[in-house]
Design a protein that fits this description.
The protein is of the alpha+beta class and 162 residues long. The chain contains 4 helices and 9 strands; from the N terminus they run ααβαββαββββββ. The chain has helices spanning 3-8, 13-17, 43-47, 75-79, and strands at residues 30-33, 53-54, 64-65, 85-91, 94-101, 112-116, 122-132, 141-148, 157-159. The mean pLDDT is 95. Bound molecules: iron/sulfur cluster (2 copies).
Length: 162
């Protein structure tokens, strides 16, 4: 079923959707962990102040998010070394994401950027709503991005237009 992931490195729509809750749940921001491999890693679990992510005793187990407990704060997003987590909320007929961003120069509030899918393709425009970059984020900025509603399972990151 998930053969395309192993061959191309791009997860299939079916695989992607296994990480999302029902859309009704996304009226509040929730963390989505796109961490599909069994790897020895758990900063997502240890960084969450609400204990909303479980990796468990076997550190190779892929993380599971408790969507009832997750507040969408975004702390796990910049603590994930694999840049494999974002948060998403359905809000006012659009999507609001918090994504990790490690390029410089960093964008600013109000910038319009390319919306990009998991294959690296440009799929539309998106708008930067907020940029957070503090000492504790260890060089990973957190971008809050407004994205067209129809890109829910497509959007994953941004690219500069210049
Ligand atoms: S977004 Fe916040 S509450 Fe949700 S899993 Fe990440 S750190 Fe925990
Ligand atoms: S921190 Fe990131 S890469 Fe590591 S287990 Fe959690 S989601 Fe996967």
């Amino acid at each position: 079923m998930f053969e395309s992931w192993n061959k191309t490195g791009v997860p299939s729509p079916e695989l992607i959707k296994t990480r999302f809750p029902d859309e009704e749940v996304l009226i509040k921001p929730k963390a989505i962990t796109e961490c599909y491999e069994e790897i020895p890693c758990n900063p997502c679990e240890t960084s969450c102040p609400f204990d909303a992510i479980t990796v468990g005793a076997d550190i190779n187990t892929p993380p599971v998010v408790d969507f009832d407990t997750c507040t969408g704060c975004g702390i796990c997003v910049y603590n994930c070394p694999g840049l494999a987590i974002f948060t998403v909320q359905i809000k006012d007929d659009a999507l609001v994401y918090k994504i990790p961003y490690e390029f410089v120069p960093r964008p600013g509030k109000g910038d319009v950027m390319h919306a990009v899918n998991r294959a690296g393709e440009i799929i539309g425009d998106c708008v930067i709503e907020r940029v957070t970059f503090t000492e504790k984020q260890d060089k990973t900025a957190l971008l809050q991005v407004r994205v067209p509603r129809e890109l829910l399972y497509e959007f994953v990151t941004v690219r500069s237009k210049s």
